[in-house]
Structure formats: C-alpha cells, structure tokens
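RECORD TYPE: inverse folding
INPUT: structure tokens
STRUCTURE:
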C-alpha cells in the first residue's frame, strides 16, 4: 500500500495526464452543450406605419382657393 501512493502521485502529476483530463472535460462539456441547444424562436418584425404628410396637404389646400378666385 505504501508503494502505491508515490506511483499514483507520479501519474497524476504527469503533464500528459493533466492535459488529457482537461481535454476530456472540455469535449464532454461541448457535447452536453450541443445536446441542450435549442434554437430561439423566430420573432416577426413589426413594420411601423408611415406617417401621413399632413403639412403638405395643408399647403396645397390653401393655394387652390387663390387659383379659383383669379379665374372668375
């Protein structure tokens, strides 16, 4: 039993073991992300109604009266 502890410590301190453990963790995390992924529902865009050009209509109404008065 006493000979086993230094061997386990040497294995766990090995750089290859540490990097492979990190790589396995990242791979499994990415795979679980793919399994849980849900696409967001498409939202319909609401178009704003165009504002009526009210000032232009008032100007043309005022000039029509003047033209009619000159024709008589």
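DESIGNED SEQUENCE:
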């Amino acid at each position: 039993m006493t000979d086993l502890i230094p061997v386990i410590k040497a294995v766990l301190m090995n750089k290859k073991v540490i990097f492979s453990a990190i790589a396995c963790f990242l791979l499994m995390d990415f795979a679980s992300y793919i399994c849980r992924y849900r696409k967001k529902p498409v939202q319909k865009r609401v178009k704003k109604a165009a504002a009526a050009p009210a000032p232009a209509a008032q100007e043309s109404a005022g000039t029509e009266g003047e033209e009619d008065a000159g024709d008589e």
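NOTES: The mean pLDDT is 80.
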